[in-house]
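Tokens as discussed.
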């Protein structure tokens, strides 16, 4: 049995797949412990896994007050957090360290771990590498503005670690964008958290009315009741049923649901998609890949996630959906939904793309990738 320390960023599209991978590693006899923000701990423990809150998770937040996402980058790029992780690795002596690809403070100090390190990326790499370079330049400049040293380039932070594991299909990720030797592609990790409870739909199983799943982010920094309300207003007049999940960051009481919609904080997307004809979402990698695996077309309305705009544009380019701007109005959303429901070509293209998922279990592949870094006998 090996000991694995997981340095975590608990963004909506980051923690959920990480938990799926950790469950597989645990089932294989390893001990995995997550370290991250205090708000992460309950979610990890609800999955039956171990978690510890970092004491310095909020130490540097005030120094990032200038940043519109201060609560994110004041944690993920905090030198105090990086130093704490170094001390924890020295104390606990794990066999391998897994670091979320967005966690620049942990990536920066990874050479000091003196342990094999796997960087875990839960979205596209080749298609977005230049965007990722720009994102880490932004983080570096933010650190300097906060009074700290900057960061090395992406080629160091990701390219010089023992493994960069990309949890997406290589067939979807385009041609290799770097000469790095550490890049391994797996598949999307589409497991669900336990808070994603089965939702009993109020419509009869024989009801042939199309169902739309409306789902945006679960990250507090991307909370937008106005966007949810706009999408509900858009879908309300259509002859469809709507299941809208508010992600635990918007209270359903803040919204006015049309007669054809049911609002819930969380739902098991897999079960809803079994009956759905359409997904309206923010273009997160997980929800988008889950929709494609089910052969469902998608209306993408990106929020603040770095990869959401290019992902929605890619779905549009493939002809498996429509990409809208983040400030799309109700008329735009309604027109896109009507187009996808009336034109079978969108569903056909999504179903064609779904064939690429056959026989690929992202959690199993990622767990094996981590195991390949373990010392012999661990």
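Sequence:
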């Amino acid at each position: 049995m090996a000991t694995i320390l997981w340095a975590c960023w608990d963004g909506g599209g980051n923690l959920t797949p990480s938990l799926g991978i950790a469950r597989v590693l645990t089932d294989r006899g390893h001990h995995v412990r997550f370290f991250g923000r205090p708000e992460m701990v309950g979610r990890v423990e609800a999955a039956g896994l171990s978690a510890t809150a970092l004491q310095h998770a909020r130490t540097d937040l005030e120094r990032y007050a200038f940043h519109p996402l201060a609560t994110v980058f004041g944690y993920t790029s905090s030198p105090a957090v990086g130093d704490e992780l170094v001390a924890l690795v020295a104390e606990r002596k794990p066999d391998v360290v897994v670091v979320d690809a967005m966690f620049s403070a942990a990536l920066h100090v990874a050479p000091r771990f003196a342990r094999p390190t796997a960087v875990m990326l839960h979205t596209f790499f080749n298609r977005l590498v230049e965007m990722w370079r720009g994102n880490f330049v932004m983080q570096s400049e933010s650190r300097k503005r906060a009074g700290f040293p900057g960061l090395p380039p992406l080629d160091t932070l990701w390219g010089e670690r023992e493994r960069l594991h990309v949890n997406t299909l290589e067939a979807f990720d385009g041609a290799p964008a770097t000469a790095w030797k550490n890049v391994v592609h797996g598949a999307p990790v589409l497991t669900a958290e336990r808070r994603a409870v089965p939702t009993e739909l109020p419509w009869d199983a024989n009801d042939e009315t199309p169902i739309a799943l409306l789902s945006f982010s679960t990250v507090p920094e991307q909370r937008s009741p106005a966007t949810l309300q706009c999408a509900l207003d858009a879908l309300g007049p259509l002859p469809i049923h709507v299941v809208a999940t508010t992600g635990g960051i918007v209270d359903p009481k803040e919204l006015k649901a049309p007669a054809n919609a049911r609002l819930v904080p969380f739902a098991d997307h897999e079960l809803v998609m079994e009956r759905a004809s359409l997904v309206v979402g923010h273009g997160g990698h997980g929800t988008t890949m889950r929709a494609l695996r089910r052969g469902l077309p998608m209306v993408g309305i990106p929020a603040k996630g770095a990869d959401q705009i290019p992902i929605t544009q890619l779905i549009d380019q493939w002809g498996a959906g429509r990409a809208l701007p983040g400030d799309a109005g109700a008329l735009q959303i309604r027109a896109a939904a009507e187009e996808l429901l009336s034109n079978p070509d969108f569903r056909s293209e999504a179903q064609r793309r779904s064939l690429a998922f056959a026989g690929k279990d992202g959690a199993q592949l990622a767990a094996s990738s981590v195991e390949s870094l373990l010392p012999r006998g661990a």
